[in-house]
């Protein structure tokens, strides 16, 4: 038996059949329980652990349908529309789902109905039933009012009003029920009776394209699994081609016979329908896994889902053999894909820019495959960039010899090396963004692009002007040009 603290007292949060047979009940205080059973053995309830375990059970049930939702703290709702025939029928898929959960040591109650609320009510009060289309209302009318799963006050009020079953409520005008008990009761009643259906919200969004294969016997040979995955990729790519789109994010799900699910995620820099490229990335990803893909006693099923797509037009090859700009971009994307698959999402970066004049906030890097926006200013033809792509996190002080009041450096010493300035451009005066906190006290900066005798180019700035009575000017190195 598990206990938790509620309303200042230790109460029973969960119990087994033996404890229930001894008269213990959910919600009873621990003191009352010990009065009934002095030798009571208890443990602490772990709501977070239970939630994680329920999510694990939801993942293992995705072998039957990708539409799996949680119901409360201990329930799962599976939308098996169009899936039952793959397992031999509704009764067979129900038995298979319960058997898969039993491998985790979970006792289950299940039912199948046309609406989620009806199935949930039948699972608790008519367990094992399969309600055919149109039968929900007749079967639901026999259920007690507790099947509506309302709060204790509403259930008590319904009982005091003389309502014992859903049949007592079914023929009452919905407006009268809403006026007395609220809109929620009438809606739930309509759904349990099968009069109204509302789709579930699955834990994971339904993929745009999906292909899967179930094995009659668990398959453990990795090469056979990858060969099957390649055939599934071909099916998925053909489906993408008919829509004129390509995949940007893919997910391969390996359903192990013991209920564990392993997922391999692949992202690409550009939309693709290339099966060979996807399989190369998948193999690289599997080889780079910190936790190897262990088949254990084998895998029961394999699924490939396309999670994100973008428009993809066919490439037109050039007759002269030259590569087009699109082909060059695709070659770069293939390189990025391989690097990401081998070294990880965060290891491959690209330069990004923000729409701001503040150098410290204007540039930076982000994962190449991230959706971070970039608003690079257009460069003048034949002109170098006005600022470096990357800056030092903290500007580094330099010793400068310069004419005054606003001349560029003549020479400067940085990291104990003296640099003679041959060319210089500036100043570019940059003031703090006045609307940000603390900007009013920050001094303006004069930036210069300078080039030394060896052709190295630097971005330096002077903080404050010569002759400033408040403080002497200081010089800093802020970035390097490539």
Can you walk me through this structure?
With 482 residues, the protein is of the alpha+beta class. It has 5 domains: 2-45, 3-Layer(aba) Sandwich (MutS, DNA mismatch repair protein, domain I); 49-107, no CATH class; 109-206, 5' to 3' exonuclease, C-terminal subdomain (DNA polymerase, domain 1, Orthogonal Bundle), CATH 1.10.150; 209-340, DNA polymerase, Y-family, little finger domain (Dna Ligase, domain 1), CATH 3.30.1490; 391-480, no CATH class. The protein has 14 helices and 17 strands. It has helices at residues 17-21, 30-36, 47-61, 90-102, 116-125, 136-140, 152-160, 166-170, 174-181, 183-192, 222-243, 275-287, 325-343, 359-362; strands at 2-6, 9-14, 43-44, 68-71, 75-78, 209-219, 245-256, 261-272, 299-311, 349-353, 363-367, 391-402, 409-414, 417-430, 445-452, 457-463, 474-480. The strands form 5 sheets. A 6-stranded antiparallel beta barrel has the order 12-13-14-15-16-17. A 4-stranded antiparallel sheet has the order 6-9-7-8, with helices on both faces. β12 and β13 form a beta hairpin. α9 packs across α10, α11 (222-243) packs across α12 (275-287) and α12 (275-287) runs parallel beside α13. The longest helix has 22 residues, at 222-243. The protein is elongated and about 95 Å long. The N and C termini lie far apart (67 Å). The mean pLDDT is 86.
Write a concise synopsis of the structure shown.
The chain contains 14 helices and 17 strands. The chain is of the alpha+beta class and 482 residues long. It has 5 domains: 2-45, MutS, DNA mismatch repair protein, domain I, CATH 3.40.1170; 49-107, no CATH class; 109-206, 5' to 3' exonuclease, C-terminal subdomain (DNA polymerase, domain 1, Orthogonal Bundle); 209-340, DNA polymerase, Y-family, little finger domain (Dna Ligase, domain 1); 391-480, no CATH class.
């Amino acid at each position: 038996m598990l206990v938790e603290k509620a309303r200042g007292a230790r109460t029973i949060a969960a119990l087994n059949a033996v404890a229930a047979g001894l008269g213990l009940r959910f919600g009873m205080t621990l003191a009352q329980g010990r009065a009934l059973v002095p030798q009571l053995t208890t443990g602490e309830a772990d709501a977070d652990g239970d939630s994680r375990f329920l999510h694990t059970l939801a993942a293992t049930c995705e072998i039957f349908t990708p539409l799996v939702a949680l119901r409360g703290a201990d329930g799962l709702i599976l939308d098996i529309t169009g899936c039952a025939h793959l397992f031999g029928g509704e009764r067979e898929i129900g038995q298979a789902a319960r058997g898969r959960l039993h491998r985790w040591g979970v006792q289950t109650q299940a039912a199948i109905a046309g609406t989620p609320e009806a199935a949930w009510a039948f699972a608790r009060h008519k367990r094992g039933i399969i309600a055919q289309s149109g039968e929900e209302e007749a079967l639901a009318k026999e259920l007690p009012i507790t099947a509506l799963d309302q709060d204790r006050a509403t259930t008590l009020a319904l009982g005091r009003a003389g309502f014992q079953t859903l049949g007592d409520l079914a023929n009452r005008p919905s407006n009268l029920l809403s006026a007395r008990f609220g809109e929620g009761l009438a809606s739930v009643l309509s759904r349990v009776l099968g009069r109204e259906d509302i789709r579930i919200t699955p834990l994971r969004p339904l993929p745009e394209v999906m292909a899967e294969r179930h094995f009659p016997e668990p398959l453990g040979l990795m090469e056979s699994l990858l060969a099957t995955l390649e055939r599934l990729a071909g099916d998925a790519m053909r489906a993408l081609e008919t829509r004129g789109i390509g995949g940007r994010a893919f997910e391969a799900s390996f359903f192990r016979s013991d209920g564990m699910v392993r997922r391999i995620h692949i992202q690409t820099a550009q939309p693709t329908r290339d099966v060979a490229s996807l399989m190369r990335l998948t193999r690289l990803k599997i080889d780079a896994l910190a936790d190897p893909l262990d088949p254990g006693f084998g895998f029961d099923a394999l699924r490939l889902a396309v999670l994100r797509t973008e428009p993809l037009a066919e490439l037109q090859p050039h007759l002269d053999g030259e590569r087009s700009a699109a082909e060059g971009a695709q070659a770069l994307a293939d390189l990025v894909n391989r690097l990401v698959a081998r070294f990880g999402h965060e290891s491959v970066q690209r330069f990004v820019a923000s729409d701001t004049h503040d150098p410290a906030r204007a540039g930076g890097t982000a994962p190449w495959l991230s959706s971070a926006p970039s608003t690079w200013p257009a460069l003048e033809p034949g002109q170098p960039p006005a600022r470096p792509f990357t800056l030092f996190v903290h500007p580094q002080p330099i010793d400068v010899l310069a004419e005054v009041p606003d001349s560029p450096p003549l020479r400067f010493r940085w990291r104990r090396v003296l640099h003679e300035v041959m060319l210089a451009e500036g100043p570019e005066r940059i003031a703090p963004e006045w609307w940000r906190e603390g900007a009013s006290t920050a001094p303006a900066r004069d930036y210069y692009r300078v080039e030394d005798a060896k052709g190295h180019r630097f971005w330096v700035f002077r903080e404050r002007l010569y002759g400033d009575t408040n403080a002497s000017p200081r010089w800093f190195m802020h970035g390097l040009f490539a």
